[in-house]
Amino acid sequence: MRITNNLILRNSLAGLQINRAAIQQLQTQIASGDRIATASDDPTGASQLMSSSSSLGAIDQYKRNIDSATSRNVVEDSAFSQVTDLLTRAREITVAESTGTSTAASRQIASKEMESIFNSVVAIGNAKLGDAYVFGGSQATTPPFTSTGGGATLDYTTTNPTGAAAVEVSAGLSLAPTHDGTQAFISSGVLTSLRDATRALAANDMPGIAASLGALDASFQEVQSLSGENGARRNTLDITSQNLDALKVNLTSFRASIQGIDIEAAVTTLVTKQTAYQAAMAVTSRVLSLTLTDYLR
Predict the structure, then answer these.
(1) What is the rounded CA–CA span in Å between residue 122 and residue 73?
(2) Do 273 and 22 form a contact (C-beta atoms < 8 A)?
(3) DSSP for 23-56?
(4) Per residue in 98-149, pLDDT tens?
(5) Distance (Å, rounded) from C-alpha 210 to C-alpha 98?
């Protein structure tokens, strides 16, 4: 085989370019701290990085969903607490006005306070978080309740708010962070019992007052049950959030183990390759400078 200067030159340059590319790659890795810049650096590792990035993105979205759901849950918890206090006061009024010491005049006065309690509960049922009504169900942009009339004609209208929106808080787990307005204020009997108690007091209807007392007690128990369900949902949100935090830490650590570079080892390798590259440059320069006379010596 005939070896010419051109062949020597091509082989020498090819070797130098390979060494130079390896040095540049190491320099880039050391500067960024990342072992993988392109998929060709490590196809398997790059695939694992893409998968973990997708998982981390999903975790961040789940966390945002949980934060939103928790805010709604907190509003409902406050609403049930306020309704509980108002029902307690309504019962006290009803008990006081159902005794023989009460009068028609005292019942008229009591009906005014009861009407105020009713309107307060309607306002709570129309609580908003941002632009949405918390108890609006599928009609979250429309007030679910409206008070009408007064005294013996007190009443309310409703959009029959059902279908509390569920949110996905982790893979395969979705939950509605609140009850809808129908569950919280209609099916529970809260608005109806307060309305009927107000009407009975305003009309000086003693049998009606006695009957409303039992209805108020039943509504109170229903609200306590709903409040317990709300607390259970809050616990689910908290536990799920903690699990996602732990998973995110593990995934982040996994990514670091794949992507991260051992700086000390990389610097040592870089110095070795740079030394070898400089030596190769010197040898190549020496070989390429030889003449025919040098070969004939």
Answers:
(1) 19
(2) yes
(3) HHHHHHHHHH-BS-SSGGG-HHHHHHHHHHHHHH
(4) 987 889 999 999 999 999 999 999 999 999 999 999 999 888 899 999 999 9
(5) 6
Structure tokens at 19: 């060494």
- CA distance readout (Å), 97 to 64, 73, 87, 212, 224: 50, 36, 15, 11, 25
Q: Measuring CA to CA, which residue among 41, 33, 38, 40 is closest to residue 261?
A: 33
Length of the chain: 297
Please list the alpha-helical segments (H only) found in 98-177: 104-125
Structure tokens, 212: 């409303």
Are 83 and 122 contacting, i.e. CB atoms less than 8 angstroms apart? no
Contact assessment for residue 177 and residue 240, using Cβ atoms and an 8 Å cutoff: no
Rounded distance between C-alpha atoms, residue 110 and residue 103, angstroms? 10
Encoding tokens for residue 89?
A: 């006061």
pTM: 0.74
Q: Is 260 in a helix, a strand, or coil?
A: strand
User: Residue 187 and residue 219: Cα distance in Å, rounded?
Assistant: 9
Contact predicate 281/20, CB 8 Å: no
Report yes or no: 199 and 208 within 8 Å, Cβ to Cβ: yes
